[in-house]
Amino acid sequence: MRFAVKERTESRHIGFGKVILFGEHFVVYGAEAIVAGIVEYTSCALELQRGRPGLRVVDERPAVRGYIPAKAAEQRRAHQLVLSHLHIDTSTDGLRVHLAGPLVPSSGIGASASDVVSLARALSEMYALHLNNEEVNNAAFVGEGGYHGTPSGVDNTAATYGGLISYRRSGGKSIFSRLALNNTLYLVVCSTGITASTIEVVKDVKRRKAADPAWFNALLERYNACVTAAREAMMRGDLQQVGKLMNENHTLCQQLTVSCAELDTIVDYCREKGALGAKMSGTGRGGLVVALAADEAQRDRIADDLAKNCPATKYVWKYSVLPMGSKL
Ligand code: MEV
Questions:
Q1: Catalyzes what (predicted)?
Q2: Is the CB of 196 under 6 A from ligand 1?
Q3: Is any atom of ligand 1 closer than 6 Å to the C-beta of 154?
Q4: pLDDT in tens, 299-316
């Protein structure tokens, strides 16, 4: 083996969860996305298993029902891709990979990205690779290929850096910057409990785009106007306008066919209860809704109401994105 290897990791290695506020799917085709890293994370600890080749994953993440078995094959592929990218050979001495942390894996929350980011960081300690954030992000991007097929890179970037990020992929490169807010964003994030396969949904959008490029380009043009206006509204603290643009982004997702009845029900419910805006977030066809509230009290009221009275809702989280900011 090329590296001095430890018996086990000692530090805590994490990858953040994320919520896409603008741009799922469009970001795959080079459009700007706005994504918020959330405080919950996945952690990864490693133990060397001498004479036992391969990886054994002990997955103790508090996932929504069915998520871990549904993603097991994709996870195996993703972990192998990270290992090969980092030139780590487990054909003689294998690894026990222990995943844990408070992030509840569910479709849309960036669980796969937080998994591969935390793994890359843990491998860096284990094999003395001294990876910086950019190298961790690159390894995680390769790993996301196992989960996503053709990832845009938005999820692994949010999982590596956290914070509020404007992200775009152009000419094979990730271009991103941290957005400095004037106000706190109070978010309700709500899961349908339905696990969707990002690889399949992204593939289906690609197929539809190829079949009708004019239809796709018209949606993309409307989306580009929407996200530009959203970033400007966020920067000047006009949350009413951000909410309206989230609604517009949801309509575009519906037209792209990536929403579903359960997501639409939850989105409508959040708006009826006074949210400034609500949309699906992430892969879609299941997964998450994100709603923007005017303040903390309204966020808590909407979240509690959803949990009690909206049967399409399986899990609800209350998040805040704080007005700190600096360049990445
Ligand atoms: C998944 O969280 C976001 C998608 O846009 C895929 C990607 O960006 O790689 C659907």
A1: (R)-mevalonate + ATP = (R)-5-phosphomevalonate + ADP + H(+)
A2: no
A3: yes
A4: 999 999 999 999 999 999
